[in-house]
Amino acid sequence: MAIAAVGQICSTASMTHNLSQCVTLIQKAASAGAKALFLPEASDYIAPTAAETISLVQPASTSPFVLGLRSAARAASLPISVGIHEPSTSSKRVKNILIWIDANGEIAHRYQKLHLFDVEIKDGPILKESNSVEPGMEIPEPFDSAVGKVGSMICFDLRFPEISLALRKRGAQLLLYPSAFTVPTGIAHWSTLLRARAVETQSYVIAAAQCGMHNEAGTRRSYGHSVIVDPWGKVIAELGGAAEDGSWKEPEIAVADIDLDYLEKVRREMPLLRRTDVYPEIK
Ligand SMILES: O=C(O)CNC(=O)[C@H](CS)NC(=O)CCC(=O)C(=O)O
């Protein structure tokens, strides 16, 4: 058994402010005895417009946010999963990626978000992620960590079970959904989708979420409610959401034991054998 920590922050356009929230959580997770800390999508910054999202981007190799996290990870000897932006080499847009910083402070894995959030909900959020973000083109192999074999996804990917099933088939035991969910879609779908992905893949699901108002103009707000779900679909760690007015004060963590013997028991007792003779198998 090993402890995993899920962290919740409210990123703004200030990378310095966001780094300090993340470093606080690294210290909290290390004191709680966690073997890994999972941080939200776009932890480096959430900007009010597509143009600002593009203008703020920096290569991971020189970004003060990433360099700061790497040295904090090394000092605490704590691996960190964190969502950031990275420049694209082929277009003016940015990449929305999830990186794994190992206990030595090295970037050991990268995943680029496959599904982009383009929505226009009547009386609700209007967001066009593809204006500023270039979609990824592959599902990287799951990788080993002290808390189990990790399969990486990001936020809106949660709505596409194909990617989680593909990762499960390749050996993932933990599925990551670092997110910045909107409030209305969060209320309607967040917990149901996360628990469904855990149940149908018989895997731990770790969903670190952005929470609260991201800018002073009040134009962008996230749902929060970070969770860890076990392979039976039970919520074993959970954080709250923002107040009515969007305010939300302290970055925080929640922790849970990741029990891979339990995961094996769930998989053994209810084998989910796919009828690939009847429907085509997911590659
Ligand atoms: O803007 C950034 O810099 C970071 N990216 C995000 O916050 C992304 C794209 S706008 N948010 C989501 O995918 C929310 C999905 C969602 O809310 C749902 O599926 O219901």
From TrEMBL:
<dbReference type="InterPro" id="IPR045254">
    <property type="entry name" value="Nit1/2_C-N_Hydrolase"/>
</dbReference>
<dbReference type="Pfam" id="PF00795">
    <property type="entry name" value="CN_hydrolase"/>
</dbReference>
<keyword id="KW-0378">Hydrolase</keyword>
<dbReference type="InterPro" id="IPR003010">
    <property type="entry name" value="C-N_Hydrolase"/>
</dbReference>
<dbReference type="InterPro" id="IPR036526">
    <property type="entry name" value="C-N_Hydrolase_sf"/>
</dbReference>
<feature type="domain" description="CN hydrolase">
    <location>
        <begin position="1"/>
        <end position="260"/>
    </location>
</feature>
<dbReference type="GO" id="GO:0016811">
    <property type="term" value="F:hydrolase activity, acting on carbon-nitrogen (but not peptide) bonds, in linear amides"/>
</dbReference>
<protein>
    <submittedName>
        <fullName>Nitrilase</fullName>
    </submittedName>
</protein>
